[in-house]
């Protein structure tokens, strides 16, 4: 039990550090977006002259939120039996086995992620061809999207899958008095989390285009699909694989495909 608690604390430390790193990686994209808004004439946007202040503020915010999310995901929701098993096993006496198993467990979800991203690029092109969307401002260039792909993959998986999804499943599990969450309970958690994931992306979409029936519908549907996929990966493979799969999807869709550029 003592060893288990020590491993969980070490795992929690790694996840918090990852979250802070992910939050910091969002700074270049965020600053570039503000610059483009100001350039487009938005007088309500302020861009800090000091990158250092952005780093300090974001670091503190990331640390506090990261600690809360990790506490929720690894302690409050531990009966959901999700969490970060790969990272936790790394701190146990199974390092060699963990490394071999990890790469095998990673391959199939990564391939699925690439295929899903390519399919959604095709669907996006068809939608835009029939329902053109007028951009409000210019979008950040590819390098910014490449950096923010890592930021989103890390922070969104910790926030939505480790934090929210684990908590939802644990609460339903407690209500249903289940020792182990059933498949149906897990999928309810996956879908609810994916819906929240889609709603979270609406403000970002609003930065670049007006929220019409097409933009809202495509944003919610697209993120419901991807959010459900990431949730399934988190359920079956754990947090670390979900993060990597999310990063790969973002890189293929936003950087390689560049549907908005």
Automatic annotation (TrEMBL):
Molecular function GO labels: endopeptidase activity; metallopeptidase activity
Entry's transmembrane regions: 12-29, 55-76, 105-124, 144-172, 184-204, 210-232, 239-257
One Gene Ontology term from the biological process aspect of the record: CAAX-box protein maturation
The organism's place on the tree of life at top rank: Bacteria
Keywords, comma-separated and alphabetical: Hydrolase, Membrane, Metalloprotease, Protease, Transmembrane, Transmembrane helix
Sequence ranges assigned to domain CAAX prenyl protease 2/Lysostaphin resistance protein A-like in this UniProt record: 144-252
Protein's name in the database: CPBP family intramembrane metalloprotease
